[in-house]
Amino acid sequence: MLAWPFLSAALLGLRDRWPAANAGWLDWLLLLLAAAFAYAAFDSLRRAMRQARARGAGWPSAFIRNEGLGWGLGYGLVALALGTRLFIAPEHRVLCWLALIGTVALLLNLAIVRGRVERSLAGELFGALTLSLAMPAALVLAFGGWRLGFTGLWTLAFLFNASGILYARMCREAVVSGIESAGLPGKVRQLASFMLASFVILAVQIAGGKVGWAAALSMLPMWLMMRAGIRNPMIHSTIRALGYTLMAQAIVFALLMGITA
């Protein structure tokens, strides 16, 4: 889910969707590695906070002593070091703002974890928004700055990531707890509601000229899978099968966005 924006951006660059930048393979490698280490930092810090919150009132000291904090800070420093070459280029200054947004999002995510609401609908959607930062970062590198139309593609990235997260959440409940799970109907309703909301959001984006019809239809394979899952939450027999399916969806979505946007 982290890498597909790079495929879309590369395809858009090949199509000359906007005037392409002179980013070389080293720049792409650095951005990809920086994004991977940034996510590793987020994952380590989130795990440390989960373990620390079990201490109740003593969670601050438990968080500071948790080895995950050290790993998370170390990964974060590596991500910053890898991105420095990109940050200092004038045409890539937007990446500095995206890194700042990502840092603030990381802190808010830790607060969500601390508040035990990370698995709530709002927590999942905020996580999807954070994950979607990879899309504008890849576009800025591909086209040497911010361009008109990037906001619409960022919206599409968020909708796709959020759909995948909510779909996985529902299917995981069905696979692990069974069709009789008490929590399954609520997760099915949440997925159906978000699917409807995504139609409305894209309709507004299309009406405002932010997203084209063809680009919006890149969501169609995901919508079809969501619809099938809503009708049959047991559509995947194992968590591994679910993971492979979501991976295939990410590749298809990246290709469609890169071809149609």
In the predicted model, the low-confidence regions spanning at least 5 consecutive residues are none
Distance between the termini: 19 Å
Number of DSSP strand runs = 0
Estimate the global geometry from the Cα principal axes: globular
Helix content: over 70%
How many domain regions?
A: 2
- N-to-C series of helices and strands: HHHHHHHHHHHH
Helix tally equals: 12
- Share of β-strand residues: under 5%
Keywords, please?
single chain, 261 residues, mainly alpha
Task: Describe, in plain words, how this protein is organized in 3D.
With about 260 residues, the protein is mainly alpha-helical. It has 2 domains: about 140 residues, no CATH class; about 110 residues. It has 12 helices and no strands.
Brief digest:
The chain is built from twelve helices and no strands. The protein is mainly alpha-helical and 261 residues long.
Topology readout:
Elements: H1 4-14, H2 25-53, H3 59-65, H4 67-87, H5 93-114, H6 121-131, H7 134-143, H8 150-177, H9 184-207, H10 213-216, H11 220-231, H12 239-260
Helix pairs in contact: 1-7, 1-12, 2-3, 2-4, 2-5, 2-7, 5-6, 6-8, 8-9, 8-11, 8-12, 9-11
